Amino acid sequence: MNTVRFTGTIQLGSIRIVANLSREGEGSEGWEIPMPAGQTGVLTTRGGDAAGTITMDDEDHTILSDDILAVFWTDADGKPCCMYGFTATVNADDVDIALGGGDYEGEFPSGSVLPSQDTAVIVALKTARNISVEADDVNYIAAGCASRAVGILGEAAEIYPINIPVPFAPVLWDAASNTSTPLTGDPTKIVCYNAGLTDDYFQIGFSFLED
User: Fold this and answer.
1) What is the pLDDT of residues 33-58, one digit of tens each?
2) Do both 105 and 133 map to the same domain?
3) Greatest CA span in the chain, whole angstroms?
């Protein structure tokens, strides 16, 4: 029998809440997906809500044509934003982006649009790992990253994005506190993008109920 344990403290004004969680399951699995560092640039041309040209700050950037990318930025209210699933077309420092690029990568957050022209952005290269998870058996999920990042769990019909909007802000799901799993199917792949400016890992783990 595998046990998942979580301990945390929340301080809000004069209120201090200590959380201790223990969940038992048949087993657990975890993955660390290596992600290359994000690269900085500016959206110099906006060709629409989901297309444009990014001029990279570094002429030695590592983006190649046909790479799959995510674009991260911060809006005027300080909210971290992201769109993913862009296919790159590279011309020296300029990277043209347009949505589309195969399984799971051509998806983006509902209602998201690119920021205004001349917005500073971070461009992230896609990394992926094949996984195998039976959604109905999951009783606990934890995901995190030392950087701002997004991971997209994918399967044949649906995807489930896990957004880490700020570094060290783990995402947790607990079957004991929710009516149903957030997974819409059995994930077979996870696609990750790193908005940090150093190489990092997207960490995700699952605890499974006993059959």
Assistant:
1) 999 999 999 999 999 999 999 999 99
2) no
3) 55
